[in-house]
Amino acid sequence: MVLRVFPSREALSRPRQGAVDVAVLVGAAALLWALVQLSHGLDVPFDEATAPSRISTDPAELPYYAARSLLRMFVALALSVLFTFVYATAAARLRRAEKVLLPVLDILQSVPILGFLSVTVTGFLALFPGSELGLECASIFAIFTSQAWNMTFAFHRSLVSQPRELDEAARLLRLSKWQRFWRVDVPSGMIPLVWNGMMSFGGGWFFLVASEALTVGGRSYALPGIGAYVATATEDADLGRVLLAIGVMVVMVVGVNVLFWRPLTAWAERFRVEDSGGADASRSVVLDLLRRSRVPRALGVVAGRLVGPTDRVMAVFGRAEHPLRGSVARRRAGDVVLTAAVVALPAYGLVRTAGYIAATTGFGEVGHALLLGLVTFGRVVVLVVVATVVWVPVGVWIGMNPRVSRLAQPVVQILASFPANFLFPLVTGVLVATGISLDWGGILLMSLGAQWYILFNVIAGASAVPHDLREAATNLRLPRALWWRRLALPAVFPSYVTGGITAAGGAWNASIVAEIVSYGPVTLTATGLGAYIAQATAAGDGPRILIGVLVMSVYVVGLNRLFWRPLQTLAERRFAL
Questions:
Q1: Residue (of 446, 552, 551, 459) closest to 506 by Cα position
Q2: What is the 3-state secondary structure (H, E, C) of 192-261?
Q3: pTM over 0.85
Q4: What tens digit of pLDDT does each residue of 147-174 get?
Q5: Do 553 and 107 form a contact (C-beta atoms < 8 A)?
Q6: Which are the contacts of 321, defined by CB distance < 8 A and separation ≥ 6?
Q7: Residue 542 class from Cβ within 10 Å (0-12 exposed, 13-18 middle, 19+ buried)?
């Protein structure tokens, strides 16, 4: 008997493997060539006295500006991932460190991007004298501060809510700390890390204008980039150039989504832990091409030979296990020393800060800033409540329906990645024409940059619900109200809390660019702490910058400690899957 095997229509439609390999190699070569070309403009001579405060708005320069901005975004993303791995792991695995690192992370999240810029620009310029590289580093650091905190919160939550079975397996297999991190911790937290990385990348786009068109200490600097292009066109009231930049931005956001984030989210599905697979897996044309190519496999073979030697070298960090017995006296002594240091250092800083404020502006300015912060706090509360009511049902619907998710995820990714402040000139024109006060319009502008944190985290939480639970709910024919109360809301609650923390923090940061907006000669200013900090930074008023940043930190940390942290503890104790 002769068996004849006929290829399927899908197999016939696949490109030949040789063509796929050529396409992958050409793409890699083009990427390397672009990086080499862009690196030539990073270390050019720079003089603070003659540095330009604006860039050319010639449309022919837009591709180069877009490439420079994209390079800054990905460098900041790489630094954010590295920071996330180190900081979140230390906070989750070291008992004493957690008591310090999490409050510090709350404070870092609460410090607005202009608060960092007012300090780091001068420092980086002094670090690289006579070179534009110092300004580049300041810009990348500013973008980093808009990305890192959200990713760190998400990865830390995935570590502390890790199933006990994985922890026991890591200890029974006697994995080293290095092996546990790469074989257990990173895979188990990959899905929330990828989704929050995508959201953080969108947050970086939002602050691109502030990080490329810098105004610090009464001096203005502009770096080649699409953010500085929009700032210059807005200052000139050139609506045509603004719309052109928005068009280029749309193309760039779609391209990054198709070539990077969509393949990454589809690849991350391999780390989903469940007994039954989903009916419709995420797909990506780029990922399919990479899987059919022999180039990644060849690189994987080379990298695989380094795994064993690396594991042996990193074994010096010890085993991933907890000591069964320990000295109670030593542990108490360590706690006392840590408590004394934690109390003494902030107390010293508080005394020095109080002396500085008393000698400059006086404490009456602190009261004024607290009242302005109360106004901005009201806007943040309205934003979070409305975003919760609107986006939690939408996020659950998208995350728990694979077919809907396949169509809606790219749209949501693009909407969330698009820098909403590029639309501020248009919104400013509408507010001026309609006579609507920025005191109310500022809530809309803040929501354009902060609401997506809730949606993305809820989608990630809903998509991570095991199909076993979904199938059980379907088989039991739960009524819709019971389905929401017993399955959907408890399942996404931990992810929602993470999204709520970062959305509230993002809203406070967004208030700096949303409470004072300009278009040509028209400037609208809302009453609030964000406008206070923006005006103090532009004027180089150090004491008022310090007061504004401290007051914003007090509000954000207080909200996190009194409201969000209890919810996070509840989520870890009762609703962790």
A1: 446
A2: HHHHHHHHHHHHHHHCHHHHHEEEECCEEEECCCHHHHHHHHHHCCCHHHHHHHHHHHHHHHHHHHHHHH
A3: no
A4: 888 889 889 888 888 878 888 888 888 8
A5: yes
A6: 170, 171, 174
A7: middle
